[in-house]
């Protein structure tokens, strides 16, 4: 009985949660992006990637083409794993719009 009351309480509590989140924090294709991470990814592309070549638009390549490109170029740009994933998140988010 206690379990049922607890579960019902949790469902009611969850239904009262605010649904007023920013678009950048909404899940897209099952992934949750933060606005801060997306901004960092965009900044890395515009600053670090553009040091050696033009800054490509995320829409210049298909989603499946970007991952090997980022893996290869991250080594040359000395990006951390976190920075690499921020760039990939930014690209994925942009392509899903």
TrEMBL record:
One of its GO terms (molecular function) is heme binding. It holds the Pfam family DHC. InterPro entries: Cyt_c-like_dom_sf, Dihaem_cytochrome-c. Transmembrane segments: none annotated. It comes from the Bacteria. This is Diheme cytochrome c.
């Amino acid at each position: 009985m206690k379990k049922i009351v607890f579960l019902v309480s949790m469902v009611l509590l969850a239904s009262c949660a605010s649904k007023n989140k920013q678009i950048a924090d909404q899940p897209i294709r099952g992934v949750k992006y933060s606005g801060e991470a997306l901004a960092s990814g965009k900044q890395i592309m515009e600053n670090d990637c553009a040091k050696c070549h033009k800054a490509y638009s995320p829409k210049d390549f298909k989603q499946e083409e970007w991952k090997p490109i980022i893996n290869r170029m991250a080594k040359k740009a000395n990006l951390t794993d976190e920075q690499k994933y921020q760039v990939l998140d930014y690209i994925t988010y942009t392509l899903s719009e």
